[in-house]
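haha ok so turns out i had the wrong file open the whole time. this is the CORRECT one, sorry everyone. sequence first:
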Amino acid sequence: MKQAFAYIRVSNAKQGRSGLGLEAQRQNIRLFAEAEGVEIVAEHVEVETGKGADALDRRPVLKAALDEARKIKAPVVVAKLDRLSRDVAFVAALMAQRVPFIVAELGTDADPFMLHLYAALAEKERKVISQRTKDALAAAKAKGVVLGSHGRDVLAPKNRKAAQHRAMAISGAVRAKLDAGKSLRKIAAELNAEGVPTAQGRQWHLTSVKRLVDRLAA
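then structure:
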């Protein structure tokens, strides 16, 4: 049976702690290995951004996986190309160094041209996502939402007033749920199921219910 090393990456510590994305990548690699008759001899997991052509210098786990793979002349398997990087130059540099790697979703027959093409698409996708985020922040700012404070949105006065009115409007229902011993997470789920939006017209989450309860207490 052919041997290979698995490489799994998430972009930040929060995703790493929650396991977000890890199991999906692990499952895709496992299915690929079973279908292709490949033995995964070791799994390497890294929490680090893949942004930039110099990403390998900041990703010691990937470097170690590639070094181990060279020693036994085995490839490194990733679930998707963007788990290596969304940067065309980075992927091209790996290919130029004849570093063996396989993208599970593309299969073992993906030629260099196709890998370059997919890398270019992944890079474009990253730029589109970045631009959408900037546009969304600009739209929020235009509506009076003051952004900042350690990554959280700080409501401008008119937003706080709307949130306070919203809190009072549903205070009876929320207090009844609290009196029934329901958790904040459960209350959020029930408000969403009942079609009750937040003051900003969004879905409820544990943190937004907590803010609502704090407003009611104040």
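Confidence is low (pLDDT under 50) at residues 149-155.
again sry for the mixup
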